[in-house]
Write a structure and sequence with these properties.
The protein is about 25% helix and about 20% strand. It is α+β, with helices and mostly antiparallel strands. The strands form 5 sheets. The chain has a 9-stranded mixed sheet, sandwiched between helices. Strands 14-15-17-16 form a 4-stranded antiparallel sheet.
Amino acid sequence: MRLHVPIVASAWLLVAACGQTDEVAFVDGGRDAAESVADGAPDAAVDQGRDVGSAADVGQAADVGSAPDAAPLLPPRMGIAGLAPPGNVAAMAERGGIEWSLLRPHRTAAGEIDVDRLLDGVDCLVLPGGDDIDPAMYGEEPHPTVRLISEARAELDFAVLRGALDRRMPILGLCLGGQELTVALGGSLVQDIPSEVPDPLDHRAIHRVDFVEGTLMAELYGGQPRDIFSNHHQAADEADMGRGLRVSARSADGVVEAFEASDRMTYPFVIGTQYHPERQLESGSHDGLIEGFRDACLAYQAAHPRMPSPPDHGESWDYGACQSDDGPGVCLDVADCAGRGGTSAPGFCPGPAEIQCCSGVTCVDGSGQGGECFATDLCDQLERVRVPWLCPGDDSVQCCLE
């Protein structure tokens, strides 16, 4: 039996299992709400905590903004977690007509992530890709191929994810972000597809996925298979999915490629993908997913109006290449740099004091060859092979193989 470390303190999901609709699955806290449902008082359970509105309110959200007495809807806005430059995720938002804001790790006086401050200014949440979750979070020892995200990123991502689930806010997790979703709800991961899945496909390339009939993902993609771009070595474990989640897409080798909340009345849009729709924008093959997410963001705003405010595009953040006395590197938050095993040096990057030049960040390509993250032009000068998408930072930073 796996030991699951509780991550989500108060999120709960109603699960219909084998035709039973009175079973309740929840992760730690939220027990009073769950017991209320079991005792036949679902309204009391739903009304606990933040005023999330009724399922009917969410379903009719598109009409709310045009009601005579309702305030006009603002442009939908998504918050981007991950402590990383927005890159293609921002481009995905703009393709769908969605504003975006970077979620900075603002803290309360008690030193905790100020989740309310971060989520009050957005209508939906995106968790982008990255390295790997600490397997201790789902009760396992790490596989040798595991490369951990920083503690700073893990703290921010799981804090805002917990808050978004509490609010029934639309959530889209991309690759690592989808894995964070299932782990937060008590699930486990396949830690290394090449060594743990029989006859695996190459999951760091374009391959086909099939959608499960009757799921939201099947609706968004018109029920048709898609050739998708993926870049992952881990995946959600179908035998141990997070509570209240169901598989909505698989690849030919049986690997889970997408999943979603099974209770769409309570969670109208909670989706995790193992692939990267933000890296295939020109094809238009993911427009249904992007448009569905936009509509869900608007529906949430209609039920939970927010005050107008400018989006935070992180203009004072700089994630480009840099050169310090310690060598070439990338401008990163000092906590993120430390989590990646790098060395921070102040005075070499624009932006706030916590953004410093981080040197010594290593990377590994799909074949297992190692390298270091620094400027692409320097890598070219050294006549070394460079690989995109494997390093933090913007497009000026790539994995320069040794």
